[in-house]
Amino acid sequence: MGSVGGEHSFRVIIVGAGLGGCATALAMHHAGFEVVVFEKVREFLRLGDSLGLGENALKLLDRWSPYLRARLVEIGNKSELMQIRRWHDGKVLAQQPLMDMAGFIGHRGDYHRAFLDAVAEKGIPVHMGSEVVEYDDSSPSVTLKNGERHFANIIIAVDGIKSRARELVLGFDDKPKSSGYACFRAFFKGSHLRGNPLAAEFVEQECVNIWIGKDKHLVQNTLRNGEEFNWIITHKDTEDIKESWFQPGNMDEVRRLVEDCDPRIAAVVKKTEACLDWKICYRDPIPTWVSRNHTVALVGDCCHPHLPTSAQGASQATESAAVLAQCLLLAGRENVPLATRVYEKLRFPRVRRAQTNGEDLRDRWHSALDKVGEGEEIDPDSILIKNNVLYDYDAEADTRKRWPELSALVSEELKTGKITPLC
Ligand SMILES: Cc1cc2nc3c(=O)[nH]c(=O)nc-3n(C[C@H](O)[C@H](O)[C@H](O)COP(=O)(O)OP(=O)(O)OC[C@H]3O[C@@H](n4cnc5c(N)ncnc54)[C@H](O)[C@@H]3O)c2cc1C
Ligand SMILES: *[C@@H]1O[C@H](CO)[C@@H](O)[C@H](O)[C@H]1NC(C)=O
Ligand SMILES: *[C@@H]1O[C@H](CO)[C@@H](O)[C@H](O)[C@H]1NC(C)=O
């Protein structure tokens, strides 16, 4: 290491081995590039809880690793239908295929393990305990905490919501802002609920239920065939933000929130011992995903975080990986700037759609009951999840189709040195 690599190899450094980093590694390897991954933590734990993967991502992963797709589907293809219920009594207001929402819901840690195994199976090196502390975009390279410097043709940062690379790319520190809401979420063994007459129906078989109320909603689902149980309450919260995946939540506040909720689910929630407080740190869209000299590109949560109601965080990161790999292939090894600038232009509107889909759904759920009286029927269509419109998309094919138009535009911008900001 330490050089740009052999004459014919095109070397890609990926920073971060989360789901997005793994997807990027697979996409780049599939494109025939030499890939190396640096990951800060020494060891991955089974972190997080439920995560959705949509068909828009699975079709790409299938091309890069059919074995991976099969494993992901096995983890996540459990319940067919989901119920959307009224907050105070659980009356079913609408029912629809789960595929319309989250796609396949599984445990983030189980999915991550499958991704990491697929990366290992391809022989892609992942260096654990290797924190990147510095980026250089003029002679593309990263410096690790231990002082080692590594060079490549392109650096791809997939370093998550608290990204250091984002600062470099933007030239300023992008502060998180509250989305106006926060989530409490808990995850525990569900088997003991089987004996609980109130809650038994929610663990008898794999299921997903959503209770919608004024300015709040609760998502309940099982994982691993009912062995594990997950609830997530989204509620109004404008408090100052601590951006963390690990902040403990205040169970007294949670109990107050579910005071007027369907007793069947309220009973389970109230008994929960501990939960996490996820201030939903959302960020305004950023004007660029690529560094000034066009050699460091951002992928995943670091440039396009999603609300939980989008259920597309990992899937959009996978699409971004696919598009960037295709752009690098189309541009050729001497033309990284062209590739990265087409990449961001192509991705930005698509990602905005997935992001705003989540905002729209949350807003529809939180106001649905305002419009109807007690005895009146709610129009089921007004609360349905509409993510399925995102699944029918092939990120690789779209990149090839739009390349001529976008590469001409970007070539012009690179010539004049005036890159139009994304927003
Ligand atoms: C702990 C955790 C729990 C989560 N739980 C859920 C969940 O329950 N449900 C859900 O839908 N989504 C969850 N998410 C978000 C979800 O994983 C992401 O939306 C999706 O996987 C895409 O993320 P990413 O790969 O871009 O970033 P991340 O998943 O955040 O991965 C970024 C990776 O980069 C590494 N990294 C950061 N800085 C450096 C550096 N300087 N040098 C080297 N490596 C670095 C991090 O250690 C991490 O492994 C969670 C994320 C985290 C981190
Ligand atoms: C998921 O499971 C359903 C029902 O068991 C099945 O019909 C469907 O084909 C499965 N989907 C995939 C992608 O395997
Ligand atoms: C930008 O990168 C190119 C290689 O792609 C290099 O030749 C050039 O010196 C760099 N410019 C600056 C200002 O860093």
Automatic annotation (TrEMBL):
<dbReference type="Pfam" id="PF01494">
    <property type="entry name" value="FAD_binding_3"/>
</dbReference>
<keyword id="KW-0285">Flavoprotein</keyword>
<protein>
    <recommendedName>
        <fullName>FAD-binding domain-containing protein</fullName>
    </recommendedName>
</protein>
<dbReference type="InterPro" id="IPR050493">
    <property type="entry name" value="FAD-dep_Monooxygenase_BioMet"/>
</dbReference>
<keyword id="KW-0274">FAD</keyword>
<dbReference type="GO" id="GO:0004497">
    <property type="term" value="F:monooxygenase activity"/>
</dbReference>
<keyword id="KW-0503">Monooxygenase</keyword>
<comment type="similarity">
    <text>Belongs to the paxM FAD-dependent monooxygenase family.</text>
</comment>
<feature type="domain" description="FAD-binding">
    <location>
        <begin position="11"/>
        <end position="352"/>
    </location>
</feature>
<dbReference type="GO" id="GO:0071949">
    <property type="term" value="F:FAD binding"/>
</dbReference>
<dbReference type="InterPro" id="IPR036188">
    <property type="entry name" value="FAD/NAD-bd_sf"/>
</dbReference>
<dbReference type="InterPro" id="IPR002938">
    <property type="entry name" value="FAD-bd"/>
</dbReference>
<keyword id="KW-0560">Oxidoreductase</keyword>
